[in-house]
């Protein structure tokens, strides 16, 4: 039994292991996966002295609790939340030392959706196709955490940052997504395209790591029938038969048969990871593909 490990005490609603993902395997039907809020994941790795490729924990809404078998340095960022060690409040957004056997409790998100927990040495579960990320769609990578799960840790490779609190953006009060129209905007009426670019939508509670679903005005097709399945990319805005746009996130399928009206700029996707249900959404067309 290694002493470099975390024991999961409380798994939370959905806590997964994530890193930079599996780019380059779409032709094999393997999604990219990886942390939805990459800047937050990168930040916690920097704070604990890890390289950016180290695996972290991604929690959803109500956090998690873990107990290390040896002393570790941790940092929590992303969705603001209460962080405690053996019941004593500690800093959020800063490196914290956790003694062996102590309980690290990452509480529910005060705002936003996903918190990220970086641990010195990184989460060292077995890599699959070059990544340790959990992929909810394909099932690759480790299963979502459950109480009693033991997560091996790597050896620390750097010195943790010396900061009080690292600045980071607040979760969005309004989610503004810049898009390039196309490639299938011609499948919709001009009025529908105008609606897409000018009307407000809301984040649906049915959103997950696969896609951010929206509620709002339905987009009317200009042509009937089905589109032959074609490749899907991160940020693609697909419109299913109900007419409500879906923004594909990290665990999205690699092909799809519903038309893609636009593609979201990659720089805007981390904010989508922190948009709670009910958050207003605006799609802003910046160019045509």
From TrEMBL:
Assigned keywords, A-Z: ATP-binding, Hydrolase, Nucleotide-binding
Pfam families named among the record's database cross-references: CT_A_B (PF02626)
The organism's taxonomic lineage, starting at the top: Bacteria, Bacillati, Actinomycetota, Actinomycetes, Kitasatosporales
Protein name: Biotin-dependent carboxyltransferase family protein
UniProt KW Metal-binding keyword: no
Carboxyltransferase domain location: 27-289
KW Hydrolase (keyword) present: yes
Domain of life, source organism: Bacteria
């Amino acid at each position: 039994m290694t002493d470099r490990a975390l024991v999961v005490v409380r798994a939370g609603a959905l806590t997964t292991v994530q890193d930079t993902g599996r780019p380059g395997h779409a032709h094999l039907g393997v999604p990219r996966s990886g942390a939805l809020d990459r800047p937050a994941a990168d930040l916690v790795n920097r704070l604990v002295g890890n390289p950016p490729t180290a695996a972290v924990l991604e929690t959803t809404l109500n956090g998690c609790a873990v107990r290390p078998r040896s002393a570790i340095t941790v940092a929590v960022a992303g969705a603001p939340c209460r962080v405690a060690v053996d019941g004593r409040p500690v800093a959020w957004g800063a490196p914290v030392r956790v003694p062996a056997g102590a309980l690290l409790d990452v509480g529910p998100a005060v705002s936003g959706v996903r918190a990220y927990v970086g641990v010195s040495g990184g989460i060292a579960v077995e890599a699959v196709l070059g990544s340790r990320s959990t992929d909810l769609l394909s099932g690759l990578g480790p299963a979502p955490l459950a109480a009693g799960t033991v997560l091996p840790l790597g050896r620390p490779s750097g010195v943790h940052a010396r900061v009080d609190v690292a600045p980071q953006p607040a979760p969005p009060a309004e989610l503004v997504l810049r898009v390039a129209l196309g490639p299938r905007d011609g499948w919709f009426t001009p009025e529908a395209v105008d609606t897409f670019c000018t009307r407000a939508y809301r984040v649906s509670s049915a959103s997950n790591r696969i896609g951010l679903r929206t509620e709002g005005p339905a987009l009317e097709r200009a042509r009937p029938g089905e589109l032959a399945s074609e490749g899907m990319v991160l940020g693609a805005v697909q419109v299913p038969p109900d007419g409500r746009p879906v923004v594909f996130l990290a665990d999205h399928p690699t092909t799809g048969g519903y038309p893609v009206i636009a593609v979201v700029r990659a720089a805007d996707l981390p904010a989508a990871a922190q948009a709670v249900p009910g958050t207003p959404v605006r799609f802003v067309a910046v160019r045509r593909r």
